[in-house]
Specification:
The complex is a heterodimer. Chain A is α/β, with parallel strands linked by helices. In chain A, about 40% of the residues lie in helices and about 15% in strands. Chain A is built from 12 helices and 9 strands. Chain A is globular. The two termini of chain A are about 25 Å apart. Chain B is an alpha/beta fold. Chain B folds into 2 domains: about 5-50 and about 375-430, Urease, subunit C, domain 1 (Roll); about 55-360, TIM Barrel. Chain B has 14 helices and 19 strands. In chain B, the strands form 4 sheets. In chain B, strands 1, 2, 3, 4, 5, 16, 17, 18 and 19 form a 9-stranded mixed beta sheet that branches. A 5-stranded parallel beta sheet of chain B has the order 9-10-13-14-15. The chains are: A alpha/beta, B alpha/beta. Chains A and B meet through helix 4 of A and helix 6 of B.
C-alpha cells in the first residue's frame, strides 16, 4: 500500500495500516544505525527545518540525527533565537521558513493544535514534534515500536499501564491512541487529579489503585512528574507522590515477570522511578532513545515522499 | 419627518399579547394606534406583506471597542451591525481602552454615540477602578453621567467583600450590577470547557464549577444586599439550577444566554479553530439543554449576544493565544430562531419576547414593546428566508464569526428607530 499522508500531526488520525507501515520502515532504517556508515541518500538535497518553540533536548537531537542519517540538510530554530520572541506570529514565522524553500518542517510548540494550524497554512509537510499536552506522535510511534520489538508484533490484548501525570502528557495521549488502535488493553493510573475520568472515552481504563493496575502488566510506561504540578495543587509533594505512585522494586514485582519498564525521559531518579529500576534488566529506556531515531527517519522519509518498501542498501 | 405606516405585517408584540396580521403606525417617533386620513396620505408606507413586525430587538451585552480598540469595531460600525441584525437598542460594555470607569470616558462615549450611533446605545460603567477589582469606581458619578448599569464584564470582581459593597452602594442609585460569573482561581490558563473534549485536545479546561461558584455568590449577595445582579451569559447547567432556586426565593437576579451557547458545543473546537473560542466557553449538550429549559421556564430572562469583535490577525493564532469572543449582532435572530423555535418548538412570540421586552425590562428601558406612546422602534423580518451570512460582507470591522459562510434561516429586512428607517434590504440608510 502506498503512503499518501503528507503531514504527521496526530496518532489519533492514523490507521493501523499506517502505523504498521511506519514501523516496518523504521525496522529497515534501524539496521543502518548499527553500521559504520550510518547514512542513506534518501532525502539528499532536501532541507528540513526544526522549529522548536519550546525547549527540547532529546526529541530535537533525535530529529536532527534522523534527518542527517537520511542525508537531508537541517536547520534548527529554537524559541530563543527565533523572532517569535520579538512578537512575530506563528503564521509569519512559518511563511518565512517556507519562503526560504524549506522542504519540510518539524515543529515543537507549547500550544496544542499548532501543527494542524501550520499544516493548513503551509504547502510543505509538517511533522508534529509535540504540541502542548495534545500529542507527541513520533514518541507514541517509537514507544509502540519498542513494545513490538520486545513483546512481538501483535499487541492485541497485551496489558499496558501508563503511570503518572497523564493530564498534562502529550506522550500519554499519543500512546493511548496508538495502543488502542493496535488492540492493547490500556490502563492509566496515578493520582485522581492527574488522571481524570475524562480519559475514559479514549478507550482506556482509569485507575488510582497502583497494585490493581500493575498486576501482571507486560508494559509499564512512566511519565515524568513535574515539580510545578505540586505548586498548582495537583498533589501534596513529590515525596507523597513517590510514596503513593513511585515505581520501586516491590511494586515492580507485581508486574508480569517479563514486563518492560519504559520512560520517555527525562527521568527523575528517585521520584517516579527507583534509580536501580531505571538501569535494571527490565528497563528499555535507552532502547527507546535509539528507536526514536529509526522511527523519526521513517516518518521523515515517508512524509518526504518515500514509500514503505524501503530496503536498506547492502553495507 | 412624515409618519410611518407599516402595512400588511404579521404583528407580534408580546408585551401587548398581540400576535395577528395588522398595520403599525409611527408618528413623531412614537408608536400610535392610528393615523388621521390626512396623515395617512402623507405617510411613508412600508409594505410588510409576508413579514413579521415586532418591537426593535434589544441586546444588553455588546462590545463596541470605542474608545481605544477602534480597529476592531467602533460605535458607528457596531450600530450598523446592530441595525442589520434588527437591533434598535444595545447596551455596551465598559472594557474599552481605557476601561469606562470615569465620567470623562463615559462622556466621551456619550459624545460619540450622539455623533455616530444609528441605533440607541446605552453605556455601562465599571464596578471598580480601571476594572482591576481592587477599589470601587465612582459609581454615583457614573450613574449621573448616564450609565445604566455597572459591570467589570470579562474581569469578574473576585473579592466577595468588594462585590458586596458594590451591591450596597449601587442599590442606592437603583443601578443594576451585571456580572461575568467566573472564579479566576479555577480558570488560570484555561481556554475551553473542561471535559472529555478538552482532555482529548490537550487544551486547558475551564470547569463549570468556576461559573457556578460566582453565580451562587451573586445570588447570596443579591439576597443579602437587596441589589439587582444580572448574570451575564450563563453557560453552565448547574448555574441554571442555582438561578432557578434563587428566583424561587424571590432573589433579585436576572440572567441572559447567548445564541452561541444555545447553538454550539465544545465539540466544535475539534480543529482548534479560534472562531469557537469565547468566554464563557462553549460547553456540552447537557449544559445547552439546561439553558434552553431555563429560557423556557423564565429562569433565564433573555438572549444577549456578547458581540465581541476581534480582527483577523488577532484571531488567526494558536488556539491558546487567540482572544476570546465572536461577533453576534447580525446572526443573533436567525441563530436563536433556529435553536429555540425550529428545534425546540418555542413559539415565535416567546422568542421575540426574549429578544425585546424581557431584556429591556431587566434594565428598565422603555423599549421592547409596541404600546402606543412607546418609542417607534420596529423590526421587520422574514422568519423563514434562507440566506448565507458572509462576515466579509457584513457591517462589522471584524469577521470573527463561527457562522461565516453558513446558511441561516430568518432574515431581518427593515429596522426602524424612532420612526426612522435605519436599515432596509441590506443597506444602512441612516
Amino acid at each position: 500500500m502506498p503512503w499518501n499522508r503528507r503531514h504527521l500531526l496526530t496518532l489519533e488520525e492514523l490507521t493501523v495500516e499506517e502505523i504498521d507501515q511506519i514501523h516496518t520502515t523504521a525496522k529497515a532504517f534501524k539496521q543502518i544505525l548499527h553500521r559504520s556508515v550510518k547514512k542513506v541518500p534518501a532525502l539528499r538535497g532536501k532541507t528540513i527545518v526544526n522549529l522548536f518553540l519550546e525547549p527540547s533536548t532529546r526529541t530535537r537531537m533525535a530529529f536532527e540525527m534522523a534527518a542527517k542519517r537520511l542525508s537531508a540538510d537541517t536547520i534548527t530554530l529554537d524559541a530563543k533565537s527565533s523572532s517569535t520572541t520579538k512578537g512575530e506570529s506563528l503564521r509569519d514565522t512559518a511563511q518565512n521558513i517556507e519562503a526560504l524553500q524549506a522542504d519540510m518542517i518539524v515543529v515543537r510548540h507549547s500550544a496544542p493544535g499548532s501543527p494542524l494550524y501550520l499544516s493548513r497554512i503551509l504547502g510543505i509537510p509538517v511533522i508534529n514534534a509535540g504540541d502542548g499536552a495534545h500529542e507527541h506522535p513520533t514518541q507514541g510511534l517509537l514507544d509502540t515500536f519498542t513494545m513490538r520489538e520486545r513483546l512481538g508484533d501483535d499487541l492485541r490484548g497485551r496489558r499496558v499501564v501508563i503511570l503518572g501525570d497523564i493530564l498534562y502528557s502529550r506522550v500519554a495521549r499519543s500512546n493511548i491512541h496508538a495502543l488502542i488502535k493496535l488492540g492493547a488493553d490500556v490502563t492509566i493510573v496515578g493520582p485522581s487529579t492527574l488522571v481524570p475520568r475524562w480519559f475514559e472515552p479514549l478507550g482506556v481504563t482509569v485507575s488510582h489503585n497502583l497494585k490493581e493496575a500493575l498486576a501482571d502488566a507486560e508494559v509499564v510506561m512512566l511519565l515524568r512528574i513535574q515539580h510545578e504540578r505540586q505548586n498548582a495543587g495537583m498533589f501534596p509533594s513529590l515525596g507523597e507522590y513517590t510514596g503513593m505512585f513511585g515505581l520501586n522494586h516491590t511494586r515492580a514485582s507485581w508486574l508480569h515477570p517479563k514486563a518492560i519498564i519504559m520512560h520517555p525521559g527525562p527521568i527523575n531518579r528517585g521520584v517516579e522511578i527507583d534509580s536501580e529500576l531505571a538501569d535494571g534488566p527490565h528497563s528499555v529506556i535507552l532502547e527507546q532513545v535509539t528507536n526514536g531515531i529509526a522511527v523519526r527517519m521513517a516518518v521523515l522519509y515517508l512524509c518526504g515522499g518515500g514509500q514503505p518498501e524501503f530496503v536498506a542498501p547492502a553495507d | 419627518m412624515p409618519a410611518l405606516w407599516i402595512k400588511n405585517a404579521h404583528v407580534i408584540d408580546p408585551a401587548n399579547r398581540r400576535n395577528a396580521p395588522g398595520d403599525l403606525f409611527v408618528d413623531h417617533g412614537v408608536m400610535v394606534d392610528s393615523l388621521s386620513a390626512a396623515a395617512k396620505k402623507r405617510a411613508k408606507v412600508i409594505d410588510a406583506a409576508g413579514l413579521v413586525a415586532c418591537p426593535g430587538l434589544v441586546d444588553i451585552h455588546v462590545h463596541f471597542r470605542e474608545p481605544g480598540q477602534t480597529h476592531k469595531e467602533t460605535i458607528k460600525s457596531g450600530t450598523h451591525c446592530a441595525a442589520a441584525g434588527g437591533f434598535t437598542t444595545v447596551v455596551c460594555m465598559p472594557n474599552t481602552s481605557p476601561p469606562a470607569w470615569t465620567t470623562g470616558t463615559i462622556q466621551y462615549i456619550q459624545d460619540v454615540i450622539a455623533r455616530d450611533a444609528i441605533v440607541k446605545v446605552h453605556p455601562t460603567g465599571c464596578i471598580t477602578v480601571d476594572m482591576k477589582g481592587e477599589t470601587l469606581a465612582p459609581i454615583g458619578s457614573l450613574a449621573k453621567a448616564g450609565v445604566i448599569a455597572i459591570t467589570d464584564d470579562g474581569d469578574c470582581v473576585q473579592s466577595n467583600e468588594l462585590m458586596r459593597r458594590a451591591c450596597e452602594y449601587a442599590a442606592m442609585f437603583d443601578l443594576p450590577l451585571m456580572d461575568h460569573c467566573q472564579d479566576h482561581s479555577m480558570t488560570v490558563g484555561a481556554v475551553m470547557n473542561e471535559g472529555a473534549v478538552s482532555t482529548r485536545l490537550g487544551l486547558k479546561g475551564w470547569p463549570n464549577a468556576a461559573e457556578d461558584l460566582i453565580v451562587s455568590r451573586n445570588a447570596i449577595l443579591a439576597a443579602y444586599t437587596g441589589a439587582h445582579i444580572h448574570l451575564q451569559h450563563i453557560s453552565s447547567r448547574n448555574a441554571v439550577f442555582i438561578i432557578r432556586r434563587a428566583k424561587d426565593r424571590g432573589v433579585k437576579i436576572t440572567a441572559e444566554a447567548t445564541p452561541h451557547h444555545l447553538a454550539l458545543t465544545d465539540d466544535c473546537i475539534a480543529s482548534y479553530d479560534p472562531k469557537f473560542k469565547m468566554n464563557p466557553p462553549l460547553r456540552t449538550a447537557d449544559d445547552q439543554a439546561a439553558i434552553i429549559e431555563g429560557l423556557r421556564d423564565g429562569t433565564i430572562d433573555c438572549i444577549a449576544t456578547d458581540h465581541a469583535p476581534h480582527t483577523d490577525y488577532e484571531k488567526d493564532k494558536e488556539f491558546d493565544y487567540a482572544p476570546n469572543g465572536i461577533l453576534g449582532l447580525e446572526t443573533s435572530l436567525a441563530v436563536t430562531l433556529g435553536v429555540l423555535k425550529r428545534r425546540h418548538r418555542f413559539s415565535l412570540p416567546k422568542v421575540i419576547d426574549l429578544m425585546t421586552r424581557k431584556p429591556a425590562d431587566i434594565l428598565k428601558l422603555p423599549v421592547g414593546r409596541l404600546t402606543a406612546g412607546a418609542p417607534g422602534d420596529v423590526t421587520l423580518f422574514d422568519p423563514d428566508e434562507r440566506w448565507t451570512y458572509v462576515a466579509d460582507d457584513g457591517f462589522s470591522k471584524s469577521t470573527n464569526s463561527p457562522w461565516d459562510g453558513e446558511q441561516l434561516r430568518g432574515r431581518v429586512k427593515t429596522t426602524i428607530v424612532d420612526g426612522r428607517v435605519v436599515y432596509h434590504h441590506g443597506k444602512i440608510l441612516a
